[in-house]
Design brief:
Elements (H helix, E strand, L loop, with lengths): L11 H9 L7 H11 L4 E4 L6 H12 L9 E4 L3 H18 L5 E4 L5 H8 L5 E4 L1 H9 L10 E5 L1 H4 L5 H10 L5 E6 L4 H8 L6 E4 L10 E7 L5 H12 L4 E4 L6 H10 L4 E4 L5 H13 L4 E4 L1 H4 L9 E4 L6 H8 L9 E7 L4 H11 L4 E2 L1 E3 L2 E3 L15 E5 L4 E2 H8 L5 H9 L3 E3 L2 E2 L6 E2 L4 E5 L8 E2 L2 E6 L3 E6 L16 H10 L8 E2 L8 E7 L2 H9 L1 H4 E11 L6 E10 L5 E4 L6 E12 L3 E8 L6 H9 L21 E9 L6 E5 L4 H4 L17
Parallel strand pairs: 1-6, 1-7, 2-4, 2-5, 3-4, 5-6, 8-13, 8-14, 9-11, 9-12, 10-11, 12-13, 27-33
Antiparallel strand pairs: 15-16, 17-22, 18-21, 19-20, 19-22, 23-24, 24-25, 25-27, 26-27, 28-32, 28-33, 29-30, 29-31, 31-32, 33-34
Length: 692
């Protein structure tokens, strides 16, 4: 039996506000937790991404806010700045749609604290932000902890990890005993529940396995295009489909006017709506759309919030949202009440991982389509190398697991094995936007294989580095020894940062890159960069949870006796900027390093080193502490430099992608100059396998 929001005990104004967003019925997690929260219970809620956890706590928190009092009444803690800002926007939208005079403010780190303090003087009802900054402001007595009635931990698994738990516990201790504590997360580990039990009072634990269902009458399609051709693809689709009423979504509201002008130039009847436009202009645009004077309305997610639109037959995503929840909000505006609807997304090759992410989140199939002779058709299996623009690439979807070569020979019956080998060798084949030359690459169902028929320039090899992976969010490289990660002040020499900056600007002069972590000049190996400030911040904020494995190869002086060991100490920095190790607990930053011997002789030992923590110069200091200095490391005690460089190499980096959430692993060979120090005559090791 279905339940309504009214039956959950919510204020009618809140329910009316939800209807403006097209939200009619509660999800399972909302139905089970809202009554408990309204009853002032401590609640732990777990359900999958995209099931409406934010509204599950936000709706009852809203209802409990006493808007007559100008005081801080609720804290919402988040592990990332991006999530904090997203929730803050949701609070503002809910306040506007419901008419509740609830105020909010973001409280996050790495921004001007003076401005935050000024904002806090207004006593916003709901504070959203990072635990570290909120605790700092409580300690400065700028946040009145004694007035806080409710504390929410959004993504509790991350907020109660080793890095954040101490801040969360400290915040809770500053509030009154009567306060309510709410924990929500997509995952709940036993360790999270154990740590949560220290601050919760007789909590209700709700775990829901729930599938978010989009209307079955809604079809999902996507088309691959170059970024510069997206408007052209859009106008052609509109001509072919001739929709009676369609919404066109873009990510950046500042581009709405430009998009409208381009479509008007092509003779299409279109209006735009922007959140910052005058009410009269917005009203006219909406009236023209509702009455059918125009069939097309261009909007951003923010501008479209709260619009009650009826009879929308098509949704066009000129830009694909990175958050699957936004895709849900967009496409949910069509296919209502049993009517059919179609959502069409225009994406670049580099944006295709977002398609997969949305498919996985909502368990839907988004079909790849093409336009051919004025019709929308299934993608053609291209067996030629026509010079026409539409034939420059072929996209193929994997329907069952297998090897890449077998898949290509089956999909391209007109191509011989040697031809396919040449395509691989010339880096003309990619899997999920990642170029591969591996003929036996393992394919999984749902992956996208793209063949570029015209030979591409090899951009993987740049000055001092090689690109291992690139997508719209990240670049992973293999850096050579001798190349700085980033220039020092006034430095003019090439760096990994400068080389990659030039690389991304070839596509768009406005493109930028951001360093996520650094390697010393003389350390070679795997290194990662972000393509936006948001991705960089999300990686750094949750580095310990994101990174699955970091391993290094080190050549050290002497014969290391122990086959393997763990070093734990506390690292400090001297006035001369030299790190040193202390065995006194809490006397500096805790550093933990594991190692095992791969090869050794009377002069040197080859070690595999794995980091548990990532402190400055951690491996170099710990090797010196053991009495086996890294070769070439004069700063940390080395007396030998047999290869003319530091004997340290970042071999492996495995992590969870910050956007797609896929596990990714990159491993590069051990440098030959390391291995040449260990010939067959002089090597003595319990580990004889050759891993390079």
């Amino acid at each position: 039996m279905r339940i309504s929001f009214e039956q959950l005990g919510l204020n009618p104004s809140l329910v009316a506000g939800l209807k403006k967003e097209g939200i009619i019925e509660p999800t399972a997690i909302q139905a089970k937790t809202i009554p408990l929260i309204l009853d002032n219970k401590d609640v732990v809620g777990r359900s999958e991404t995209g099931t409406g956890k934010t509204l599950a706590y936000l709706l009852p928190v809203f209802q409990k806010i006493d808007t007559r009092k100008k005081e801080m009444q609720a804290l919402i803690l988040t592990p990332t700045h991006e999530l904090a800002l997203q929730i803050k926007r949701q609070v503002e939208i809910l306040a506007k749609d419901s008419g509740f005079a609830v105020t909010t403010a973001p409280v996050i780190g790495n921004v001007n604290i003076t401005r935050q303090i000024e904002k806090l003087k207004e006593k916003p009802h709901i504070l959203v932000g990072s635990a570290g900054r909120i605790l700092e402001l409580i300690q400065k007595r700028k946040i009145t902890a004694h007035t806080i009635k409710t504390i929410v931990l959004d993504e509790a698994d991350r907020l109660l990890d080793e890095k954040n738990a101490q801040y969360v516990h400290a915040i809770v201790k500053t509030t009154l005993k009567e306060r309510q504590l709410l924990l929500f997360s997509a995952t709940l580990s036993p360790l999270t529940l154990l740590r949560a039990s220290e601050i919760l009072k007789d909590p209700e634990v709700i775990q829901v396995t729930e599938k978010i269902m989009l209307p079955p009458t809604l079809a999902h399609q996507y088309f691959i295009s170059e970024q510069r051709d997206k408007i052209d693809v859009l106008r052609k689709l509109i001509r072919i489909i001739n929709p009676s009423r369609a919404l066109i979504f873009i990510n950046n509201g500042n581009q709405i006017e430009t998009t409208v002008e381009k479509l008007l130039f092509h003779g299409l009847d279109v209006e735009g709506i922007h959140g910052s436009w005058l009410k009269a202009d917005r009203r006219k645009a909406m009236e023209d759309f509702r009455t059918g004077k125009v069939r097309l309305l261009v909007a951003s997610d923010l501008a479209a919030r709260g619009l009650d639109l009826i009879g929308v037959t098509h949704i066009f995503n000129l830009d694909l949202p990175e958050d699957p929840q936004l895709y849900l909000h967009r496409v949910g505006r069509t296919g209502r009440a049993g009517q059919s609807g179609t959502a069409l997304s225009i994406v670049t090759e580099k944006e295709t991982p977002l398609i997969k992410k949305i498919e996985q989140t909502f368990r839907i199939d988004i079909s790849l389509k093409q336009m051919f002779k004025g019709k929308i058709v299934e993608p053609r299996r291209n067996t030629g190398t026509s010079g026409a623009a539409r034939d420059r690439q072929t996209s193929l979807k994997v329907t069952e697991p297998g090897e890449l070569m077998k898949f290509l020979l089956t999909q391209l019956p007109g191509k011989r094995r040697n031809t396919v080998k040449a395509l691989l060798a010339h880096r003309q084949i990619s899997v999920d936007a990642k170029v591969t030359t591996q003929f036996d690459y393992p394919l999984q169902t749902g992956q996208q294989v793209v063949i570029t028929w015209t030979k591409v320039d090899d951009v993987s090899q740049l000055y001092g580095l090689k690109i291992l992976f690139e997508d719209p969010y990240l670049i992973v490289i293999d850096k050579q020894a001798g190349l700085l990660s980033m220039a020092a002040a006034q430095g003019n020499e090439p760096t990994a940062y400068s080389v990659l900056s030039q690389h991304v600007k070839k596509t768009n002069p406005k493109n930028r890159i951001f360093i996520v972590h650094r390697l010393d000049r003389e350390t070679s190996g795997v290194m990662m960069f972000a393509k936006s400030e948001e991705v960089k911040q999300s990686l750094q904020d949750a580095w310990k949870e994101v990174v699955i494995e970091r391993s290094y190869i080190a050549v050290v002086e002497g014969f290391v006796v122990k086959e393997q060991d763990t070093i734990t100490s506390w690292l400090k920095e001297s006035k001369t900027l030299r790190m040193y190790s202390s065995r006194i607990p809490q006397d500096g930053q805790k550093a933990v390093t594991h190692y095992r011997v791969l090869k050794r002789n009377n002069k040197y030992s080859l070690l595999e080193v794995k980091l548990v923590t990532g402190r400055k110069n951690q491996i170099r200091v710990h090797m010196q502490t053991l009495g086996y200095c890294i070769i070439g490391d004069k700063k940390y005690g080395a007396s030998k430099n047999p290869i003319g460089r530091l004997g340290l190499h970042a071999r492996t980096l495995a992590f969870r992608h910050p956007v797609t959430r896929e596990e990714m692993r990159f491993e590069v060979p051990i440098p030959g100059e390391f291995l040449r120090l260990f010939n067959a005559e002089t090597c003595r090791s319990g580990h004889t396998e050759k891993r390079g």
